């Protein structure tokens, strides 16, 4: 693994750089031999996956490092063939059921059940359960989550589920109550800074403290992004300077520009221009809630408090409706138009105040 | 008339530009004539008087003659029979000069003629000038109205002449005939046998020259006819219509009152003109006269209208003088007179129309035959030497293969069967205009045609115009109908001319008002019509419809079940149409959200019961978005494009995910945006061994990243014939957005280096993998024995990985390593140390010493080949090369 993100990923609970107390608890839990299903949640880039892999390694030893990537095929009741990529070792299997969209229920039913139903052949010297790691649980459909519910209880003797999610709000309460929730908060700025320094030391580079701080800030406390940014900076210009240009992800810049278009002019024509930009974002497979969030965060910046509340409420409602539908462009544009309407009214009234 | 053009100032500027020129021409022409001789002036006066004195049909006849005169000179004799002798002397003088500008402005020659009339009849100072558009428009419209008044709807004469031509033959014809002998020269003549009415018509127009060969009974009826006519002329009150009515009672009114000349067309003037203009563009290839050049000159001359020039891209001809769009595609709902329009315009421009419609065989083979026959050949024998114009009616029903064939043919790629000389490709290019007619231009089979053809969509005829025409017909047919009933008929039929006339004929006007329902067509409309219905405020005579009716109308429109497409179209088109009120738009968009939610619910839970609520969204959109003015809609093809693009990007992501094991979301959000930066280090374009250490590291890292993500560079040919390396799968596309940040890209030479390194590294990895597998097998067998070798092997491969680029280094190291492992060294022909590689070593260890010696000896052998000088051969493993 050659990207720094992969290269300097901690491999055991003891080597984790932050939230050390939590790591300690996890270690204790595993050493006791048995643990309930886990639901690991936290923002992206906080190190959930790293932590989970550490747990699994702690359980089974270095055998988990021998990973196989496989493509499994399933068939839906309507005879549609599905393919899903799994990453597995002898001891665990990792799946992202939401890859297959609305058919995730079939994956959960088939894959998890078959894995869970088979016992370990040789339990001596090993744990008698396997681990099934499901990622992006919050994107599972309700159907799939319901299907998961009973499975979790029934096969607890032979398998442990580790669920990984960004937020618990879209996970059914029934599932939440069956799992031990482990929250992995985003690393603090200073945490990120320390890690960046550490990496540079190991790479034999010198990193100005100033730049490290700026990197940590622009990454919005996403460690993965911070490390990638650091690497990009290194490629760009090696002897680092404090005020070096930091590459931001294009999509963020793009959303920011879009938001500034919304603020600059409120007219159907502008709406049309914004629509094409939204389409562009959507075709680049940027998740629509990220677009929503980005737009809101940007365009709320030059509003007063009253307006902020109003717009945030509206955004919340619209985003909720977006998840109830399927064509996100309608909802995104509806939000844009609504914002424009509100903002225009606000501007007009404030102008009247002047006159 | 006026109502047809909402803004006469502008539209006439564009559309009637030609008329201005003509009027100007006329003026000049007039002046010239005036100075040339007063005699002609006198003649004209005389002619004028004649005209005034003459009965009305006379005027009409002259018009016809003028129109046909421009086709070809050889045509004139056949048609000029109709021209009354009083006009002939004057006419002869005129013809040559008229032809002069007929050649340029043939398309409006009939208009011109009427203009001429109008001009002559008016005092000179009153004549409108071309720079006063209003006046000219008025003049043109007046002329047209006058013409409408004069014309009795049908000009039957020319038809009869044609009939005659077809019904008399000197050879034994293929139709039913009666043989007659001409007493004068004993020539056998074969006459067509027809049913009674038609033969009567024939006699009606029999010319005097053939008098003798006609039986007495016919002569008698003819004489009677003439008497009747004379009586009527004398009373000056009349038309020959009652007569024709009794004669051709069984003819459909639709055919009977089909427009016979350009000026009678009901369809929108701009559309007529567009088609005419297009067909005129062919003049250069077909008639070898310049239409465009003269036009251009005129445009440059004084009142060049920039807008006009810009708005008609099809004006350009290509280098060979063909119009760029070689096919015209007329589209529109049934019954608007598309076929009539095509026929008339083609005839008008001097073509002979060859029609292929759905009733003809249209399999590719048959199609090919007809195409070749009609466009590349010319009637030699027939007395109609005009070139053909192909009209493909109802083309939306033709098989796709046929349409492909048509396209190929038009582009000149089709070579007639049997002939294979590709040298004269120019010969096979279609030299004749092709007009296609269809109802629904968005039929899948027409997709290819749509891209290349010049598309003219025929709009609905204005209701009042149609009602007027119906009124005229009913007057001629002596029906008593009130205009309100007619208007209602028009409204119900959806401005379908054909069905209106049909209804009129069969209802006989008696109870038209009561029994309207039969005229109702299947009300299913195309997407565009539905969108238009929703986005346009419906208007009838009394202004805007009341709200409740509008709601009903919209609900009826959206009933047909294509609500998703409809909503998509409205979403696509509304920002162009709607007003600036953002809060309305926000409200309407809420309905789109509603729409989406309902649709999703229906889709996922199959709750069809909530489906009807969708339709109310359309009502809302109608109320907020609809506009009274005419709107231009476009098809929401962007949705399809976006889906395609999204699917492609997801495909890229899946491949990368499969190789790297990273989640899709993580890939898109975090990794892909940085990859373009990470994968384009600054490298000099020098050969590998000249790179500095830093550069080597960069390349190494780059190669590793590429392999981790399963990416390669693939050589591709660019559109400008240059080679370039493309990333495959191209994850850069996901990471980068337009107009965001400039990114450095690697130049070709650097990519080449990288690709080389990439291949090398890949082979190395495969080698290592194989080695490690064999090693592990080895380890299991005898762990103790081979510790040393395996260790050395791992260190060896590691080192090679580290400085892979320097070959001599690697060799040296392998030398050293061999010293360490105390292997037996062999020297080859050139004195180099021979590396004994691991796979063989394994075997060696297993074999006895004797056989080992044998094997090692045999790893180098000599073979003599005559004339071929690879004297030394040995096994070379990949690792030795890297």
Automatic annotation (TrEMBL), chain A:
What are the transmembrane regions? none
Q: Which GO terms describe its cellular component?
A: DNA replication factor C complex; nucleus
Q: Which keywords describe this protein according to UniProt? A: DNA replication, Nucleus
Name the major location: nucleus
User: Which Pfam family is one of those matched by this entry?
Assistant: RFC_C
- GO BP field: DNA repair; DNA strand elongation involved in DNA replication
Q: Which Gene3D superfamilies match?
A: 1.10.8.60, 1.20.272.10, P-loop containing nucleotide triphosphate hydrolases (3.40.50.300)
Its annotated compartments are: Nucleus
- Enumerate the InterPro entries for this protein: DNA_pol3_clamp-load_cplx_C, DNA_Rep/Repair_Clamp_Loader, P-loop_NTPase
Q: Which GO terms describe its molecular function?
A: DNA binding; DNA clamp loader activity
**Which proteins does it associate with, and in what oligomeric form?**
Subunit of the RFC complex, an heteropentameric complex consisting of a large subunit RFC1 and four small subunits RFC2, RFC3, RFC4 and RFC5; the RFC complex interacts with PCNA. Forms an heterotetrameric complex with RFC2, RFC4 and RFC5; this complex has ATPase activity but is not stimulated by PCNA. The heterotetramer of subunits RFC2, RFC3, RFC4 and RFC5 interacts with RAD17. Interacts with CNTD1; this interaction facilitates crossover formation.
Question: What job does the chain carry out?
Answer: Subunit of the replication factor C (RFC) complex which acts during elongation of primed DNA templates by DNA polymerases delta and epsilon, and is necessary for ATP-dependent loading of proliferating cell nuclear antigen (PCNA) onto primed DNA.
Hey, which family's this protein in? Belongs to the activator 1 small subunits family.
Q: What is this protein called?
A: Replication factor C subunit 3
Automatic annotation (TrEMBL), chain B:
One Gene Ontology MF term: ATP binding
Q: A biological process (GO) annotation for this entry? A: DNA replication
Superkingdom, natural source = Eukaryota
Pfam families noted in UniProt: AAA
Q: Which GO terms describe its cellular component?
A: nucleus
Q: What is its main location?
A: nucleus
Q: Which family does it belong to?
A: Belongs to the activator 1 small subunits family. CTF18 subfamily.
* Protein name, UniProt field: AAA+ ATPase domain-containing protein
Native source species? Tetragonisca angustula
């Amino acid at each position: 693994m050659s990207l720094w993100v992969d290269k300097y990923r901690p491999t055991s609970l003891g080597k984790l750089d932050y939230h050390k107390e939590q790591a300690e608890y996890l270690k204790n839990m595993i050493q006791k031999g048995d643990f309930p299903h886990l639901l690991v949640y936290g923002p992206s880039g906080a190190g959930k996956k790293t932590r989970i892999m550490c747990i699994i390694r702690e359980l089974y030893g270095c055998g988990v490092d021998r990973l196989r990537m496989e493509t499994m095929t399933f068939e839906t009741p309507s005879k549609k063939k599905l393919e899903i990529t799994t990453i597995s070792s002898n001891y665990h299997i990792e799946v992202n059921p939401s890859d297959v969209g609305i058919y995730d229920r079939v994956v959960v039913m088939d894959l998890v059940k078959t894995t869970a139903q088979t016992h370990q052949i040789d339990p001596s010297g090993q744990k008698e359960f396997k681990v099934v790691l499901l990622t992006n649980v919050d994107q599972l459909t309700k159907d799939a989550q319901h299907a998961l519910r009973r499975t979790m209880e029934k096969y607890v003797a032979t398998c442990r589920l580790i669920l990984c999610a960004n937020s618990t709000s879209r996970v059914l309460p029934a599932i939440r109550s069956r799992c031990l929730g482990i929250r992995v908060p985003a690393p603090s700025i200073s945490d990120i800074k320390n890690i960046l320094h550490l990496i540079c030391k190991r790479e034999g580079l010198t990193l100005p403290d100033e730049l490290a701080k700026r990197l940590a800030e622009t990454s919005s406390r996403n460690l993965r992004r911070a490390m990638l940014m650091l690497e990009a900076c290194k490629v760009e210009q090696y002897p680092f300077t404090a005020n070096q240009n930091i590459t931001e992800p294009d999509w963020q810049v793009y959303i920011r520009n879009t938001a500034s278009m919304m603020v600059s002019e409120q007219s159907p024509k502008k709406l049309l221009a914004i629509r094409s930009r939204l389409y562009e974002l959507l075709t680049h497979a940027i998740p629509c809630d990220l677009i929503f969030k980005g737009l809101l965060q940007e365009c709320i910046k030059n509003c007063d408090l009253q307006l902020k509340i109003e717009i945030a409420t509206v955004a919340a409602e619209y985003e909720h409706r977006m998840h109830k539908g399927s064509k996100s462009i309608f909802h995104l544009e509806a939000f844009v138009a609504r914002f424009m309407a509100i903002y225009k009214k606000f501007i007009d009234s404030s102008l009247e105040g002047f006159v | 008339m006026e109502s047809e053009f909402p803004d006469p100032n502008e539209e006439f500027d564009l559309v009637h530009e030609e008329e201005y020129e003509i009027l100007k021409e006329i003026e000049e022409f007039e002046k010239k004539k005036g100075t040339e001789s007063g005699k002609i002036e006198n003649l004209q006066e005389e002619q004028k008087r004649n005209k005034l004195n003459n009965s009305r049909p006379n005027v009409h006849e002259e018009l016809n003659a003028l129109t046909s005169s421009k086709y070809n000179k050889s045509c004139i004799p056949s048609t000029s029979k109709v021209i009354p002798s009083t006009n002939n002397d004057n006419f002869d003088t005129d013809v040559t000069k008229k032809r002069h500008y007929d050649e340029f402005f043939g398309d409006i020659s009939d208009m011109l003629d009427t203009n001429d009339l109008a001009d002559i009849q008016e005092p000179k100072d009153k004549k409108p000038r071309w720079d006063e558009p209003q006046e000219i428009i008025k003049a043109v419209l007046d002329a047209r109205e006058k013409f409408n008044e004069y014309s009795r709807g049908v000009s039957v004469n020319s038809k009869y002449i044609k009939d005659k031509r077809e019904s008399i033959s000197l050879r034994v014809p293929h139709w039913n005939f009666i043989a007659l002998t001409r007493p004068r020269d004993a020539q056998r003549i074969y006459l067509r046998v027809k049913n009674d009415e038609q033969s009567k018509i024939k006699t009606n127009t029999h010319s005097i020259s053939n008098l003798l060969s006609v039986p007495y009974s016919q002569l008698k009826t003819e004489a009677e006819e003439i008497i009747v006519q004379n009586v009527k002329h004398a009373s000056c009150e009349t038309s020959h219509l009652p007569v024709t009515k009794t004669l051709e009672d069984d003819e459909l009114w639709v055919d009977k009152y089909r427009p016979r000349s350009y000026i009678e067309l009901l369809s929108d003037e701009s559309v007529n003109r567009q088609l005419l203009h297009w067909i005129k563009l062919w003049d250069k290839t077909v008639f070898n006269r310049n239409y465009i050049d003269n036009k251009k000159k005129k445009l440059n001359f004084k009142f060049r209208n920039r807008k006009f020039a810009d708005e008609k891209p099809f004006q350009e001809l290509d280098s060979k003088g063909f119009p760029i769009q070689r096919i015209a595609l007329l589209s529109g709902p049934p019954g608007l007179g598309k076929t009539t329009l095509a026929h008339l315009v083609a005839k008008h421009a001097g073509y002979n129309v060859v029609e292929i419609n759905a009733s003809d065989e249209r399999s590719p083979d048959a199609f090919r035959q007809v195409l070749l026959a009609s466009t590349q050949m010319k009637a030699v024998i027939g007395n109609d030497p005009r070139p053909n114009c192909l009209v493909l009616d109802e083309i939306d029903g033709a098989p796709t293969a046929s349409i492909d064939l048509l396209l190929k043919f038009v582009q000149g790629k089709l070579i007639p069967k049997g002939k294979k000389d590709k040298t004269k490709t120019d010969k096979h290019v279609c030299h004749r205009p092709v007009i296609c007619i269809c109802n629904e231009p968005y039929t899948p089979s027409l997709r290819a045609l749509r891209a290349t053809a010049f598309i003219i969509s025929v709009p609905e005829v204005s209701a009042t115009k149609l009602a007027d025409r119906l009124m005229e017909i009913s007057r001629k047919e002596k029906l008593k109908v009130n205009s309100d009933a007619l208007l209602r008929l028009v409204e119900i039929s959806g401005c379908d001319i054909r069905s209106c006339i049909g209804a009129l004929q069969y209802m006989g006007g008696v109870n038209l008002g009561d029994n309207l329902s039969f005229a109702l067509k299947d009300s299913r409309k195309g997407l565009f019509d539905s969108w238009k219905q929703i986005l346009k405020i419906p208007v009838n005579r009394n202004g805007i419809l009341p709200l409740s009716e509008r709601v009903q109308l919209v609900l009826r429109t959206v009933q047909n079940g294509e609500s998703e497409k409809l909503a998509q179209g409205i979403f696509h088109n509304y920002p162009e149409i709607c007003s600036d009120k953002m809060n309305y738009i926000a409200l309407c968009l809420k309905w789109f959200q509603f729409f989406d939610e309902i649709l999703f619910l229906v889709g996922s839970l199959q709750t069809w019961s909530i489906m009807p609520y969708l339709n109310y969204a359309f009502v809302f959109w109608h109320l907020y978005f609809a506009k009274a003015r005419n709107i231009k809609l476009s098809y929401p093809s962007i949705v399809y494009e976006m889906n395609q693009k999204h699917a492609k990007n997801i495909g890229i992501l899946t491949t990368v995910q499969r190789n790297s094991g990273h989640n899709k979301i993580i890939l898109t959000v975090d990794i892909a945006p940085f990859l373009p930066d990470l994968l384009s280090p600054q490298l000099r374009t020098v050969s590998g061994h000249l790179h500095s250490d830093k550069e080597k590291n960069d390349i190494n890292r780059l190669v590793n990243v590429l392999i981790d993500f399963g990416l390669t560079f693939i050589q591709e040919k660019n559109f400008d014939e240059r080679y370039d390396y493309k990333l495959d799968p191209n994850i850069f596309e996901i990471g980068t957005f337009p107009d965001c940040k400039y990114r450095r890209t690697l130049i070709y030479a650097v990519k080449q280096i990288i690709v080389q390194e990439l291949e090398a590294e890949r082979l190395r990895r495969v080698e290592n993998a194989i080695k490690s597998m064999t090693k592990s097998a080895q380890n299991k067998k005898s762990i103790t024995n081979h510790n040393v070798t395996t260790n050395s092997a791992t260190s060896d491969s590691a080192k090679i990985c580290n400085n892979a680029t320097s070959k001599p280094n690697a060799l040296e190291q392998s030398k050293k390593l061999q010293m360490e492992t105390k292997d037996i060294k062999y020297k080859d022909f050139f004195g180099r140390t021979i590396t004994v590689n691991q796979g063989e070593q394994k075997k060696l260890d297993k074999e006895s010493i004797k056989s080992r010696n044998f094997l090692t000896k045999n790893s180098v052998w000599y073979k003599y080949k005559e004339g071929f000088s690879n004297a030394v051969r040995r096994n070379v493993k990949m690792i030795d090369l890297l």
